[in-house]
Amino acid sequence: MDMDAFFASVEQQRRPELNDKPVVIGGGGDPTRRGVVSTANYQARKFGIHSAMPLKTAYKLCPAAVFLPVDMAEYSRVSHIFKDVLRKFSPVMEDVGIDEAFLDLSDIDKASEQIAQEIKEQIKEATALTCSIGIAPNKLLAKIASDLQKPDGLTIISEQDIEQRIWILPVRKLWGVGPKTEASLKEMGIGTIGELAALPIETLLENFGNSYGRYLYEASRGIDDSPLVTHWEPKTISRETTFQVDTDHWQTIAKNLADLTRETVAELRERGYRCKNVTVKIRFDDFKTHTRATTMEETTDNLEKIRKAAFYCLGHFELKKKVRLVGVRLGALVKE
Ligand code: TTP
Ligand code: MG
What we know:
The chain has 336 residues and is an alpha+beta fold. The protein has four domains: 2-72, MutS, DNA mismatch repair protein, domain I (3-Layer(aba) Sandwich), CATH 3.40.1170; 73-160, Reverse transcriptase/Diguanylate cyclase domain (Alpha-Beta Plaits); 162-219, DNA polymerase, domain 1 (Orthogonal Bundle), CATH 1.10.150; 237-335, Dna Ligase, domain 1, CATH 3.30.1490.100. It is 40% helix and 23% strand. The chain has helices spanning 6-14, 42-45, 55-61, 72-89, 112-127, 139-148, 162-166, 179-187, 193-197, 201-208, 210-220, 250-270, 303-315, and strands spanning 2-3, 23-26, 37-40, 66-68, 93-97, 100-103, 131-135, 154-156, 237-247, 273-284, 289-300, 323-331, 334-335. The strands form four sheets. Strands 9, 10, 11, 12 and 13 form a five-stranded antiparallel beta sheet that branches. A three-stranded mixed beta sheet has the order 1-7-8. Helix 12 runs antiparallel to helix 13 (303-315). The longest helix is centred in the last third of the chain and has 21 residues, at 250-270. The protein starts with a strand and ends with a strand. The mean pLDDT is 96. Thymidine-5'-triphosphate binds at residues 2-7, 38-39, 51-52, 98-100, 150-151. The site of thymidine-5'-triphosphate has 15 residues, from strand 1, helix 1 and strand 3.
């Protein structure tokens, strides 16, 4: 299950005056400032606007769009509401992200399509929002199916449909195939999942290594036996900030690092973890990105100690160029 144009739909739902307008959510909502598009509603997508695009580009494509800031607290509140609805249908749920989840219906004694209809109705009742659902024998296919008839979709894919409905799709639709793999495959003359499935396994292993090569071989055939992950442990907790204007002002960089450290430590504590590693990331104005890391003597959630470690890392950068972005990451986490 994946919500439709999630952040934008939440905003439109609470501001009916936005109906029928192109809406873009991102950064502080000011398209003249730095920041990227988190999402755009379907009207705005017609202008070519999409997630991760700079807000300034989005503005050029559609100056008439309504630009709004990200209100994570509100989206997260709505997210909890529809996940509570989902949990009522099956105890086995994998929480994938703020607007997405897998439900295991294999032990539920009712037709999956019927369940999906009821889920859609109840989510609509609880949030006034629409979602798209994919039903399939495994997560890989369910995810693809959920995307096939967006928005407000309900798509069922069975093993028999793989040839007709999956093989015609571009390789990017496969989970785990990003722009790099897409480009390598394109060089090999492969554009669709079907063309990928026609490659001998040896070719895939040779080009993509044993593990990823085998994954591609199986995924292109719709094979996936990965179980639902019903709870996960974070590996790291991180935050980063892009400056409005590139800066070489040490105090500005330091203040931002201190703020980011405070926020990550707050999350660390809230989630009940301690950390041992601290990494600071700096991206310079030429987009070169460097990190410096340190390991503390013992695991801790003490802000003072973690801030000290972060500033120790900061001290090991050569700050000769202007800085575009600073970030901090807490690693080697252990649960309290
Ligand atoms: P998606 O489900 O990828 O997108 P969506 O719900 O906006 O649209 P669709 O109807 O195609 O599912 O992501 C869910 C939310 O996550 C999205 O509303 C905003 C946020 N997001 C980002 O902040 N940055 C990103 O790059 C992406 C892809 C999503
Ligand atoms: Mg979505």
